[in-house]
Write a sequence for this structure.
């Protein structure tokens, strides 16, 4: 509908959207989440408060959109995982990149703020799952599926469970700041997950766990 | 020192402490955490606000103490894990109990509130680790260590990593409400962890307890 007002209007709208999201990201990384206001985001973006409220209902919605924009590449498509055919190498690459991401102080603040909102807001949690977690999980699962077809994972491996065991420990360590996130840790998670879900080396079939 | 004022004074102090902790637990399970105030806790416990502030610096400190009190048994000792000699059965028992705990609505609210505080307060996170997470982890690790001595886990198994892979997926599933927590899920986590950290030489097939 906005296109009725012409391409200039659309471009201006998109520029203002980008400015708002960049302002939200900058503010959340600069100060404590609870101190960031929609007013401050508007001021930083050089737009009126109402411009933000016309598009997003709350501060958490803007911050969430700002995070979401980070995971889109230039043409709005979400990322895929590397597939060189070597599952262990590919997963270690991805897990090491994840460790790097979580140890980046500005990312840390943003994700910590988002997790606070998600833990206490079931609707935002659902949106997070739908728009961010699920597409990422699907990309990861598709990499595991191709490994499964290549015989690098057990034919009956539960890929959802494998993903959880690969990622959840890193997430919990970060959230609770219980131990440092290191490259060695990323590698150890991959090794243990491959031991748990890799093909059985024995001739005998794996024990079925049901479910 | 309070004993100089006699056993009656000590008993009164302990009664008021218990009343405050019970009031904090009740309020946090009844309404949204951010709406709970120290005033409301004091009113519910039948004490003055200052009685709370003399002992705890903030709302989050009282709520944390209330949670901590739940994990102590009658004589203030923390729990130990069952050790029947059958690691798989013992872990499934514990993980099923954990699933039950996390699906209890009143526990859910309390732990969700606490996790919000922990994620955003590094000092509280440290206290949580020291007083709650570490003692529990030590109890769990001591069970894994006895299994390791009995040859049920690999001699070089990283027990910290094993614990994380056992518990973190359940915690993340609960925090993000991404999938239901079930008995089958508890069992699957145990099975996968035992595959990842069990002894590599499969001289005898692993046994299922049937459930």
């Amino acid at each position: 509908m906005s296109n009725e007002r012409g391409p200039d209007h659309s471009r201006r709208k998109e520029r203002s959207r980008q400015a708002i999201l960049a302002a939200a990201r900058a503010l959340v990384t600069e100060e404590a989440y609870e101190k960031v206001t929609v007013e401050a985001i508007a001021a930083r973006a050089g737009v009126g408060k109402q411009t933000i409220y016309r598009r997003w209902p709350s501060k958490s919605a803007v911050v969430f959109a700002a995070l979401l924009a980070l995971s889109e590449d230039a043409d709005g498509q979400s990322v895929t995982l590397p597939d060189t055919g070597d599952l262990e190498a590919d997963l270690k690459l991805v897990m090491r990149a994840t460790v790097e991401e979580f140890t980046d102080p500005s990312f840390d603040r943003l994700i910590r703020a988002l997790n606070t909102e998600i833990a206490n807001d079931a609707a935002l949690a659902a949106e997070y799952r739908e728009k961010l977690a699920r597409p990422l999980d699907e990309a990861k699962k598709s990499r595991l599926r191709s490994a499964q077809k290549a015989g690098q994972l057990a034919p009956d491996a539960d890929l959802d469970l494998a993903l959880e065991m690969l990622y959840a420990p890193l997430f919990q360590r970060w959230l609770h700041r219980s131990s440092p996130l290191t490259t060695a840790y990323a590698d150890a998670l991959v090794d243990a997950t491959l031991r748990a879900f890799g093909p059985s080396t024995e001739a005998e079939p794996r024990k079925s766990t049901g479910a």
